[in-house]
Design a protein that fits this description.
Blueprint lengths: L2 E7 L2 E8 L6 E5 L9 H4 L2 H8 L1 E6 L20 H14 L4 E6 L1 H12 L4 E7 L18 E6 L7 H10 L3 E6 L6 H4 L1 H16 L1
Parallel strand pairs: 3-4, 3-5, 5-6, 6-7, 7-8
Antiparallel strand pairs: 1-2, 2-4
Length: 206
């Protein structure tokens, strides 16, 4: 079951969707892209799939997106620095620690910046057609958190070279090309996305 809730952060309401698993093997925080909201994760049944796999799932609407109030504290910058603070504040508010952070496109840039700024709160991460690789290229070699990089075979928004660069910059990372998918690869080929996610999470547990 998907729960819809609000939490107050810095005096502003943040909307998020969540679902709980039966055996609580870990937590996933799902971010969204610039043209999307947490609702898009429901279309591919991500909450059901990951909860059935044993994970509690949390997907916020970024401030100023979807049902969340705009908060000037988290305005976007090219290097996503203020954006990563939202992940820190949201996870602290919900009492989450050592979670897996998942981000497509803009959410990928936020994810990468979080790995740079606050690596201790994240156990592993997944990015999909991520933005922010070039602005962060000097910081990314310091990232030690396990990272799964997914890139649509026909991504026409973010060039595949950025995925290869990211793979080369982050030593504990792997790059997978999503067959037949464009930029929103997790929406275009959800079965491949879920298969790779499950394998990645399984390796983290072993």
């Amino acid at each position: 079951m998907i729960n819809e809730s609000y939490v107050e952060i810095g005096g502003y309401k943040v909307f998020y969707r969540s679902s709980a698993s039966l055996n609580h093997m870990g937590s996933l925080v799902l971010l969204h892209g610039r043209s999307f909201t947490s609702k898009d994760w429901t279309g591919i049944k991500a909450f059901d799939v990951f909860s059935a796999t044993g994970y509690d799932v949390y997907a916020p609407d970024y401030p100023g997106f979807g049902n969340s109030q705009n908060n000037p504290e988290y305005k976007f910058s090219r290097d996503f620095k203020n954006s990563s603070r939202f992940v820190l504040d949201f996870s602290r508010k919900l009492g989450l620690l050592d979670f897996t952070l998942v981000g497509p496109s803009m959410g990928g840039g936020i994810t990468l910046r979080t790995l740079v700024d606050y690596p201790d709160i994240v156990s592993s991460a997944v990015v999909i057609g991520s933005s922010g690789v070039e602005p962060l290229k000097d910081d990314l070699p310091h990232v030690e958190v396990p990272l799964l990089i997914l890139w649509g075979e026909f991504d026409d928004v973010m060039k595949r070279e950025d995925g290869v660069l990211l793979k080369n910059l982050v030593k504990n990372s792997e790059l997978k090309i999503v067959p037949g998918a464009k930029h929103a690869a997790y929406l275009d080929n959800p079965s491949f996305f879920f298969d790779e996610m499950k394998k990645f999470l399984e390796r983290r547990r072993n």
